[in-house]
Specification:
- The structure is a single chain.
- The chain has 239 residues and is of the alpha/beta class.
- The protein has ten helices and seven strands.
- It has two domains: 129 residues, Rossmann fold, CATH 3.40.50.300; 97 residues, no CATH class.
Length: 239
């Protein structure tokens, strides 16, 4: 199942790729293991996949080692490896964190194009709300290891229901809010406190100690994760 039906792209390709094997060899291993084809057929598939992820001169690149490639190229090679067996689900864990902004946009566009081409569902794990707004169809917001809100992306950004999501959106810089445009120095909204340790969660709602809307019921019982509006779920007593 792992690698064949479900594949993963990691946050830092330099630590996820084997520095002792060529890029082509690493993709070949995936294909041979799951599809039971010959080494020659696997090599051809590896070159084909490098071509799919828009790496120039794929035959030459297949013979190179990870350290011979740039960060963006390594991430493309990892995407090629993940999609080599045409999985049903692709998990992408912060796939653009280690890349500069221009390369980030290219990688996200590439993942979107390949998703449509291969018919693969993508689960994107990220802290970047801009990336979420641009790429996601549906969003699950997590806090302290638990789902606190879930909705289609437009609905979530337009009408957030959980105080944590409201706080996240309020902490994003707004155009025109800096001193010089408004005449006043404005601070970004911040969520006070820190995330509690998962081994020692507070009683009741885990977000309670940091929440501006907390009340007695929040401190006593964990709120159920339930539908508050059509197709919009939240775990909050006061949503």
């Amino acid at each position: 199942m792992r690698g064949s039906k479900i594949a993963m792209i990691f946050q830092e390709p330099m630590t996820a790729l084997n520095p002792l094997l060529t890029i082509g060899r690493q993709i070949q291993e995936m294909v041979v293991l799951h599809d039971k084809v010959s080494k020659r057929a696997a090599r051809d598939r590896a070159i084909e996949m490098l071509q799919h992820v828009r790496i120039p001169e794929p035959e030459r690149r297949a013979r190179e080692y990870p350290h011979q490639m740039s960060g963006g190229m390594r991430q493309r090679a990892m995407i090629a490896m993940a999609l080599a067996c045409k999985p049903k689900i692709l998990l992408a864990d912060e796939p653009t964190t280690a890349l500069d902004v221009t390369i980030q946009a290219q990688i996200l566009d590439l993942i979107g194009d390949l998703r449509r081409e291969f018919g693969t569902a993508v689960v994107l794990i990220t802290h970047d709300l801009g990336v979420v707004a641009e790429t996601a169809n549906r969003v699950i917001v997590m806090y302290a290891g638990r789902k606190v809100e879930e909705a289609p992306v437009r609905e979530l950004f337009a009408r957030p229901m959980h105080p944590y999501m409201t706080g996240l959106l309020s902490s994003i810089p707004k155009v025109g809010s800096a001193r010089g445009l408004s005449g006043l120095e404005e601070r970004l909204t911040e969520i006070p406190g820190i995330v509690p340790p998962l081994m020692n969660l507070p009683p009741g709602c885990a977000f309670g100690p940091r929440c501006a809307r907390v009340e007695e019921q929040c401190r006593l019982a964990v709120p159920d994760f339930e539908m508050k509006r059509p197709d919009h779920f939240a775990a909050c007593w006061r949503s």
